[in-house]
Design a protein that fits this description.
- This protein is an all-alpha fold.
- Helix content is about 75%, strand content about 0%.
- It contains 12 helices and no strands.
- Helix 7 crosses helix 9.
- The two termini are about 35 Å apart.
Length: about 280
């Protein structure tokens, strides 16, 4: 429909109602979760018993706030470490892969490209189970054959990093490749003709051009790793990540401290998203 044409009142009303319901559906659960983080109640649900900051700052004995809860703070630290290493490895390997597929020609390139995208369409549960079974099989083989116990093959921190890295790298590969596809390669040829080495061309010309894609994909990779649950559930050891720890708390009976954790995560990720948008806007100006 052309917007400049007169609209029927019924259509306009339904259109506004649809918009309102759509955003209520998106944000109402988040708003309720954030509000209940300040509820003066021992249960993470309504009714409202008054405003309280106990679930953030209380140090007991009746209530333990988030900043004094050792289990949640430890899992927050584990998730941050995991996300850091996953995003770092994903950006490095994904960028190298984008150079391979966009700048090089070799037999079977098209087939290998689609094969590289496969982890994105495999369910996380299947990916987690597959990596766990493979790691267990390798661990048993090395122990029985060579008498070597390799900790990497046991559920734990680095197996979680490996499991998340296996599919998040594909996302980085897609983003960086899309940016690299638009790059004017005559700039590289001009630099090479002027005496620059291949590494100098990549360092001073190509990588600065890719910087927005590298920062953006790295930030999204960090968030994808931080909130990952289904793959991590099969690979985690005694050091649980924050999503796994929250799941265990909800399963065993939780307090509003999970609302406090959710509130802080929503505020933090929203802040990073706004900063990212402002930086992009400044760069495009």
């Amino acid at each position: 429909m052309i917007r400049t044409l007169p609209q029927q009142r019924g259509y306009a009303t339904l259109f506004k109602l649809y918009i309102a319901l759509f955003y209520v559906f998106l944000f109402a659960p988040l708003v309720v979760t954030c509000v209940l983080a300040f509820n003066d109640s021992n249960f993470p649900a309504l009714p409202w018993h008054g405003f309280s900051l106990d679930w953030f700052f209380s140090d007991g004995p009746e209530r333990i706030g988030l900043f004094h809860d050792r289990s949640n703070m430890q899992s927050l630290w584990v998730s941050s470490q995991t996300a850091f290493w996953v995003s770092l490895f994903s950006v490095i390997v994904g960028t190298a892969g984008s150079f391979l597929f966009e700048h090089e020609e070799f037999p079977g390139k098209r087939g290998l490209w689609f094969l590289a995208l496969t982890p994105l369409v495999i369910p996380g549960v299947i990916l987690g189970i597959s990596i766990l079974l493979t790691a267990n099989s390798l661990g048993i083989y090395f122990e029985d054959t060579f008498g070597i116990d390799i900790p990497l093959f046991r559920p734990g921190f680095w197996l979680v990093v490996l499991g998340q890295f296996s599919f998040i790298t594909t996302f980085v590969l897609l983003v960086v490749s899309a940016r690299l596809r638009k790059f004017d390669r005559s700039l590289e040829e001009a630099a090479l003709n002027l005496g620059a080495t291949r590494l100098e061309v990549i360092r001073y010309i190509t990588l600065p051009y890719l910087r927005p894609a590298l920062i953006g994909s790295g930030a999204v990779a960090f968030l994808m790793s931080f909130e990952n649950f289904n793959t991590t559930l099969f690979l985690v050891g005694s050091e649980t990540t924050l999503p796994i720890n929250l799941y265990l708390q909800v399963r065993d009976g939780s307090t509003p401290i999970i609302n406090a954790v959710s509130f802080l995560l929503i505020i933090t990720t929203s802040t990073f998203a706004v900063i990212n948008l402002l930086l992009k806007k400044k760069e495009n100006a």
